[in-house]
C-alpha cells in the first residue's frame, strides 16, 4: 500500500498552480489546495525518489543520450500496458507533449494551413496552432446532455460530430488534426470504433494525425483505452503518438516525453523541426525517472487510479445530492472531471469570482477550453480524499450564503 493520504506542502515550492492561485486571489487563506493545473497532490512513488538518488550517486549530469534501458522501458510499457507494439527506432524524444505539438505543426503543415481540434479541448492545442501562423479549425464535440432530450444529464457524455469532422477534413487546406485520447477536459475514453472512424476520415482526406495520449494510463474501471495507432494495420504510419509519464506518475517537472513516429520521413521532419529550436539535448534525470516509472511503479499507478476513481464517485454523489442542477460528466479517463455550472445563471466572470473569492475553489475555468466550455469548470481529482471533501464543503457553504 502506498501513501495517497498525505498532501505535500507545495505552497512555497514554486508550483505553477499555487502561484496561479495566489495571483487570482492574494488573500486566499492558508491550507487551501488548488484544483486547476494537471499535476497531482500526491507524493511521488518512493521507487522514483530512491532510484534517482542512486542515479545521482553514480552519474554525472552532463549531456546524456537515451540509454537502451530507457528506450526498452517505453517499448515495454506500451506493449504491456496498452497492447501496442513498436520498434525502438520509432521513438523520438521531446521536452514535453506541448512542444511536440509545435514541432509537428511546423513539420507537417505550412503557414496558413488548417489544423483541426475537437472543442472544448486542452487550450495549448489552439495556442500552438496560432503561434505557428496556422488556422484553427474547430469542430465542436456533441454534448449529448444538450442534444438528446431522453438522456439523463448526469450520466450522459460527449461524442464526436463525425459529419462536421468530415467536412473540416475535406478542405484541401486542412492538413493536420490534434486529437486528444483520452480527451481533456471532457474525460472521454474513445472507443476503438470511434477512433477508427476518426482515422478513416483523416486518411481519406490526407490529414496527418497528432495523437496526444498523455493521459492514456489514467483509465477508470470499466473502460478500455486504445492507442490510435492500433485501429488499423499500419495505422501508425499516418500519425505521431505522444506519450509521457508526466500525468501518470506526477513527473511533469521532468519535462520528458516520447513521440512514436513510424514513418521515417515524418521522423526526420519532426527531428528537423525540433532541432531548428536547438532543442537537441535530453533531460538525464527525466529519462531515468521515466525508466523507473515504467519498470518499477505499475502497482503505484494502479493504486493511484483506484484513489482517483473513488474521488470521482464521491465528487459525483456530493454534487448530485447538493447541486442537482449542475451536470457532472462521467470520468472515463484522466483525473480531470468536467462540470456544467450554467444552470446557476452566472457569466464567466461572475462564476470565476464566486469560485475563487467566495468558495476559495481554484479550478481550470471552462472558458479556457474554448467557447464550448463557457460556464463549465474542470476539477482536478488527483488529491487525497480529505482535501476534496474540504473543498466541496466550502462550495456548499459559499452557495448557502
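Q: What amino acid sequence fits the structure above?
A:
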Amino acid at each position: 500500500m502506498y501513501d495517497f493520504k498525505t498532501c505535500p506542502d507545495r505552497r512555497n515550492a514554486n508550483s505553477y498552480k499555487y502561484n496561479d492561485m495566489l495571483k487570482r486571489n492574494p488573500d486566499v487563506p492558508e491550507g487551501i489546495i488548488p484544483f486547476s493545473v494537471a499535476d497531482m497532490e500526491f507524493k511521488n512513488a518512493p521507487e522514483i525518489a530512491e532510484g534517482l538518488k542512486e542515479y545521482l550517486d553514480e552519474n554525472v549530469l552532463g549531456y546524456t543520450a537515451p540509454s537502451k534501458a530507457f528506450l526498452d522501458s517505453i517499448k515495454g510499457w506500451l506493449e504491456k500496458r496498452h497492447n501496442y507494439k513498436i520498434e525502438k527506432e520509432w521513438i523520438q524524444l521531446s521536452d514535453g507533449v506541448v512542444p511536440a505539438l509545435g514541432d509537428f505543426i511546423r513539420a507537417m503543415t505550412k503557414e496558413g494551413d488548417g489544423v483541426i481540434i475537437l472543442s472544448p479541448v486542452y487550450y495549448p492545442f489552439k495556442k500552438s496552432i496560432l503561434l505557428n501562423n496556422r488556422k484553427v479549425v474547430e469542430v465542436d464535440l456533441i454534448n449529448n446532455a444538450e442534444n438528446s432530450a431522453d438522456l439523463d444529464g448526469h450520466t450522459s457524455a460527449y461524442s464526436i460530430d463525425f459529419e462536421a469532422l468530415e467536412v473540416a477534413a475535406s478542405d484541401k487546406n486542412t492538413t493536420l488534426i490534434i486529437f486528444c485520447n483520452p480527451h481533456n477536459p471532457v474525460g472521454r475514453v474513445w472507443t476503438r470504433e470511434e477512433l477508427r472512424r476518426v482515422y478513416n476520415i483523416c486518411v481519406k482526406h490526407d490529414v496527418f494525425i497528432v495523437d496526444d495520449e498523455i493521459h492514456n494510463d489514467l483509465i477508470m474501471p470499466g473502460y478500455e483505452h486504445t492507442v490510435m495507432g492500433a485501429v488499423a494495420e499500419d495505422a501508425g504510419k499516418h500519425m505521431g503518438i505522444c506519450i509521457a509519464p508526466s500525468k501518470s506518475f506526477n513527473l511533469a517537472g521532468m519535462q520528458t516525453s516520447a513521440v512514436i513516429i513510424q514513418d521515417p520521413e515524418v521522423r526526420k521532419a519532426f527531428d528537423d523541426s525540433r532541432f531548428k529550436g536547438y532543442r537537441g539535448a535530453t533531460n538525464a534525470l527525466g529519462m531515468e525517472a521515466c525508466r523507473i516509472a515504467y519498470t518499477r511503479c505499475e502497482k503505484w499507478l494502479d493504486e493511484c487510479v483506484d484513489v482517483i476513481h473513488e474521488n470521482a464517485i464521491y465528487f459525483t454523489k456530493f454534487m448530485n445530492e447538493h447541486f442537482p442542477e449542475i451536470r457532472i460528466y462521467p470520468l472515463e479517463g484522466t483525473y480531470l472531471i468536467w462540470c456544467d455550472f450554467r444552470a446557476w445563471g452566472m457569466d464567466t466572470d461572475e462564476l470565476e469570482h464566486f469560485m475563487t473569492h467566495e468558495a476559495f475553489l481554484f479550478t481550470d475555468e471552462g472558458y479556457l477550453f474554448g467557447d464550448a466550455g463557457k460556464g463549465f469548470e474542470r476539477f482536478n481529482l488527483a488529491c487525497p480524499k480529505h482535501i476534496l471533501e474540504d473543498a466541496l464543503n466550502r462550495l456548499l457553504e459559499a452557495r448557502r450564503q
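Q: And what stands out in the fold?
A: The longest strand covers residues 174-180.
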